[in-house]
Request: fold
Amino acid sequence: MTVLGISGLYHDSAAAIIQDGVILAAAQEERFSRKKNDSALPLQAIDYCLQTAGIAMYQADAVVYYDQPLLTLDRTLHSIGNAGKEADYLAEHGLENLAARLLVDASLRKRYGLLGKDDKLYTVEHHRSHAASAFYPSPFETAAILTIDGVGEWATTTIGEGNGNQLALHKQINYPDSLGLFYDAFTAFCGFKVNSGEYKFMGLAPYGVPRYEKLIRDELIELYPDGSFHLNPEYFCYDRSAVMTGDSFARLFGGPGRRPEERITRREMDLAASAQRVTEDVILALAREAKRLTGSENLCMAGGVALNCTANGKIRRSGIFDRIWIQPAAGDAGGAIGCAYAVYYQLSGAARKPQPQDSQQGSFLGPDFSEKEIETALEKNKLNWHKLEDRELFQQTAALLNNNKVVGWFQGRMEFGPRALGGRSILASPRSADMQSRLNLAIKFRESFRPFAPAVLLEDAKDYFEMEQPSPYMLEVAQLRHELQFAFNTAEKLQEENYDMLKVVNQPRSQLPAITHVDGSARVQTVTKERNGRFYDLLKEYKAQSGCSVLVNTSFNVRGEPIVCTPQNAIDCFLNTDMDALVLGSMLVLKEEQQQTPDLKWRNRFEPD
Reply:
């Protein structure tokens, strides 16, 4: 049985295809369209999935959409009714977007003809899609399931339970009470873009102190013992307006929000620290409730808030659950996998066979390219390159990294989800004190404070980080081992001394300064030969040359650009940044051997996030 799942028309659209319970392919539309968080119906991603499966749309046993549009219509009409003077705006924009969702089946038929063998578009509720994406690929036979995001149809949070091939949702919190939108409101107020700037806001938190925490708890959110919560509508406008917050929110926090690209002040740092602390407490309360309701030792998570790796690390360390598995594409993109799985098990009744690690295949589910395709792209761009056998390739690349060179690394299938995991990565040495600023300012073209993640050999992870379990998808934060850290001012001390942020960024904090955040934490990826192939081999060689088992691993893109998909995407990013080298499959390209000059207009194609 072959099932095609589709997410789209909110943000981060994607498609996935499952055959007899195995994920054959999954990809986000943004990787093909080159539009960050593309919300369009994911036609290019659908084409890729169908091509990978070797079928036409009409040959699929089922085609599934990850949302119930009529329930979303009910919520939209409710919001318009409460909007007052903003009702016309909401009616125009809200109903326009909703119309596209109501017409998904018509749009698909126009392009593809029959929708599967029975010409029917199945629909699965949004949070059930998230829950299915969390549980069905997980390594657990039974598990509690927690989904948290902005909003689906009405639900913003659910607690459920998976058992074999069955999934049940026991409890939900409804719009407008939303932890995802609570976090988005602070993200927007601090000048970052909703649905893409949350990573920045989370990364900013360790630079501040939570001096607004009590104010937030007193005025904005009421948290109950069972993990449910209520937001004060006086301060949030997203349910009745075109903006997230209004004048009362600004007055509460000392004036208007920061405008995008303005200097980040101590207020934004402290707001980030405060909102992050409150968010973590809510998530922990929900995890405890999930434990109480299910009694399970295992937890699965999905929804955009499940990408909050700092909170995930706290759940792990809390000991509430013995084991945790988080969908690597936890946001809306992962809903494509979830709705496909939900309908597959509904229609087939097949037994589910959890895999010891998981069934996500390292999340390497996107397109790959042959050596011939790579050579054709290099020739087209008139580049000079060296084609190397594996051993020599790893040796030369590791030597470049050991000499503080920055390398674009393009291997095998593209990752599904927001993290680069060694398929489409930019790599660098973690031991250089100025590498964080260099990568941010000269290569990624983004704010210098944003931290970078470490990739580490799984067998050596405990030598560097305080962690007991693997972290293959870079979804949890762990502390660097104390003996590797230098004496460093805490965030509170930094505030007292009113340090300039750039000085803080460039002040060495550990023996691995490029991956050590200001609070001594790191978002860790553990690397194995089985999951990561050539990336593991490169890390082994880097260890042999440097004595260090850790590399900086950041996504292969610049600010506002989707992660690269094709060899041409990678070449464009390489030529138009200060990257020193590019590895495409077996081809090594050195910047010093090229004649091309950067296209200064290239990065202007991507809207800042």
About this structure: The chain has 22 helices and 22 strands. The chain has a mean pLDDT of 92. Residues 452 and 465 are 15 Å apart (CA to CA). Residues 266-294 form the longest helix (29 residues).
